[in-house]
Amino acid sequence: MANLRISTLGDATMTSLKLKTLLASLALAASGMAAAQNSLLNVSYDVAREFYKDYNAAFAAHYKKTTGQDVKIDQSHAGSSAQARAVNDGLAADVVTMNTTTDVQFLADSGVVAKDWAKKFPHDASPTTSTMLFLVRNGNPKGIKDWDDLIKPGVQVIVVNPKTGGNGRYAYLAAWGAVREKGGTEAQAAEFVGKLYKNVPILAKGGRDATATFLQRNQGDVLITFESEVVSIDREFGTGKVDAVYPSVSVVAENPVAVVERTVAKKGTAQLAKAYLDYLYSEEAQEIAAKHAIRPRSETVLKKYADTFKPLKQFTVAKYFGSLTEAQKVHFNDGGQFDKLYTPGAK
């Protein structure tokens, strides 16, 4: 009987150990799940990295104050279209913050973000905008003032490949639309853009690569890029390296955002992801955007930073291209207008 009792106690001890191990495992899993639910990955475009660095700190403080919870936010930056493809291929972004609606729509068409993503947040889910301008070397040695100067002999233009980044697509559309704004025809716009790209020695992969080509590798006379890149360059390379030239007309560039439904459903981060994007519309976030020369939607903040945002005639993509989706089909898909106008190395 004694032996039997010892055996029974052994089984009970083993059962207790197994139960403790199971509970510990469940607690660890729960802890990991809780940690996952309080962490986000924002997959974004190149030129927005400094803005989101400051925004993330502001949002984390706001979230802690309103919920009592800490939140961890990770960032990923590259060319907008390359980022969209990475998310489509499995990169576990909780949110995407892009610079062209086509990149978000691509994810919607794949079922990665909601079909009606543009209706989930105000202003068609674009909390900020930007525009395209020219950055020239200090003193503007080539005397560049407007679009026509970019097709002059001997002027080298640095620009992003419109097939890999929204920065490049907006530069192309801005150039095309500038001709139309001055009364030119579609044929004249095509001719002008063709001449412009003959002055492009190399196509950059994304906005940051374009800046590096221009400033670090010292190539080109003018860089076409987002207005916000002026602030980034001054911070990274020091003030006085470049002058900003505002052309007579440019394009409105919307910065769309969306929750990545595929990821948040797995991680349980839907509520946090929505809160993260909602806060982009707050006055605090709009002011952070303005400090980075990203145009806020808030009229109050826009007026406050009137010195930052020079008066500039702007046209919408819809005016000449229908939509970015239509522009993608006509101009940037394989065999489209861009492929017809641009020949690598051609002069």
Protein described:
With about 350 residues, this protein is an alpha/beta fold. It folds into two domains: about 35-130 and about 255-300, Periplasmic binding protein-like II (D-Maltodextrin-Binding Protein, domain 2), CATH 3.40.190; about 130-255 and about 310-340, D-Maltodextrin-Binding Protein, domain 2. The chain contains 16 helices and twelve strands. It has helices spanning about 1-35, 50-65, 80-90, 100-110, 120-125, 165-180, 185-200, 205-215, 230-235, 260-265, 270-280, 285-290, 300-305, 315-320, 325-330, 335-340, and strands at about 40-45, 70-80, 95, 130-135, 155-160, 205, 220-225, 240-245, 250-255, 255-260, 295, 315. The longest helix is centred in the first third of the chain and has 36 residues, at about 1-35. Mean pLDDT is about 90; it is low at about 1-10 and about 25-35.
User: How many helical stretches?
Assistant: 16
Structural class: alpha/beta
List unreliable stretches of 5+ residues: 1-9, 27-34
Main CATH class of the largest domain? Alpha Beta
The overall average pLDDT, rounded, is 90
CATH topology of the largest domain: D-Maltodextrin-Binding Protein, domain 2
Which percent band covers the strand fraction?
A: 15-25%
Give the CA-based shape: globular
User: Biggest β-sheet: count, sense, barrel?
Assistant: 8 strands, mixed
Question: Can you name the CATH architecture of the largest domain?
Answer: 3-Layer(aba) Sandwich
Provide the number of structural domains: 2
Question: Residue share in helices?
Answer: 40-55%
Q: Tell me the total number of β-strands.
A: 12
CATH superfamily of the largest domain: Periplasmic binding protein-like II
The string of secondary-structure elements, in order, is HEHEHEHHEEHHEHEHEEEHHHEHEHHH
N- and C-termini, Cα separation: 99 Å
Provide the gyration radius in Å.
25 Å
